[in-house]
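Explain this protein:
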Amino acid sequence: MINFKILNRLSPRRRLWAITFLIVMHVIFALFTASAFLGCSSTEESGPTEAEVLFKDANDLMKDGHYIQATEKLNLIRSKHPYSYYATHAELLQADILFKQENYVESSAAYILFKDFHPKHPKSDYVLWRIAESFYHQVPNSHDRDLSFANEAIKYYNELLQKFPNYRNAKAAVEKIAKCKEMLEKKEQYIADFYFKTEEYAAAIYRFKSIVENFSTVELKDYSILKILESAKLLKNKADCTKYFDMYKGVISSDRKEDLVSSFENCKKI
């Protein structure tokens, strides 16, 4: 308790300083007492938390192939323990379950969402791999169908290789990129050939030019360059024949250069 009789004997300046000091000390003492009381009155939790138990159960259920029951456990974590340490783990495990169920549309979305919300997660390399794999598994077996998923797979495989070049599945990623690109090449050639066969030569030129500009397979590029000149000849466009000859004479391989010259000579005769 503050002794006001003693304070009254002090000068106004000293009295103000003393009152301030005593108030501060009382506040510190009150805070210390409260923290000590709370520390004594609370007991630490022993054993695993409910969220931990739910997560481990979900993980075991997933390993045994009980995906529905595992998902139910993960939903409980999200609803009852959204800020738990295991909430983030539950998000990734849910994406894994969708992948194992071969629900690749949903798994790709789940992994991408996880990647966006946890960009510095220690399993970022694994998440990128699974995103790419989810798209890769949606690529059709035939090149005459929609191959947009192949482009998405290439995108995420490349991101994985760029950010984590030493990832354990890096070699497989390179191989799968090559397979996707091969399918895309066949797709583009299929479309270009279709336009050529149906005598849509302007459209064929556009497609063959795209192949030359975007793909690196030598045989396919040579084939496309020759088809471009042939299409220009069939359109009876000498100016385009000259333009494309000048454009590609330094691009075509040495093995097919004579064929290009021959095609150009035929084009000039129209």
